[in-house]
Amino acid sequence: MDDENDFDPEDPEHKEIGREMVDQSTGLGSVAAHLYRGEMERTVGWRERLDTTTNWAVTVMAAIVAYGFSGDVSHAVILAGIMMGTAFLFIEARRFRDYDIWRSRVRSLQVNLFADALDPSQGVEQDAWRESLSQDYRDPKPKISYRGALAHRLRRVYLPLLSAMALAWLFHLWAFQPGTPFFESASLPGISGTLVVSVLAAYFCVLFVLAIPLSSKGRGESGAAEHGELDEADL
Known about the structure:
- By secondary structure, the protein is mainly alpha-helical.
- Helices cover 69% and strands 0% of the residues.
């Protein structure tokens, strides 16, 4: 019991255990290896779910554009494709938050345990990493806000994808209704073209605002800093 009470997560002897794992055959090293393998499998599994959502979004939106240009089809079909893309965006942002829980654990083990084992002279990245990891296992929480996850997926995938859909919509208006005034060709049954264009413009303005990182951290360290860390739980 005294040993447990004397544990100091920031003490070099307690936080820099990578060297001990290499120099000595320890039970902790074996446990850490199995733990890392399990967390990596979870991370890969969630990454595959994330990629599946992206693949479905691209496939569905491409099919909608192809159908929209297949004949005398209303441009409303492409607008519906933009709505479908937005639905996929919200789904993917939620999945990205879940994925980031496992990714943050794997990253913590990499930089604080295995990196220290390979080169102890550099020390560890986080002083109280064992305490943070322990707390995360006891009370798992997302490390990135929903707003941050939404901004990340917008910048990486959905803003270019939705922008391409908007360009396809504009081209559809030009190709299928040549010579017709722009706002007249953009109209829908019972809805003026001015209103359609205004709503679409406002929608993309909102997307561009949402894509702005909330902080300098959100701009990314080759993308990595756009994820959360163990000591940054966000409900």
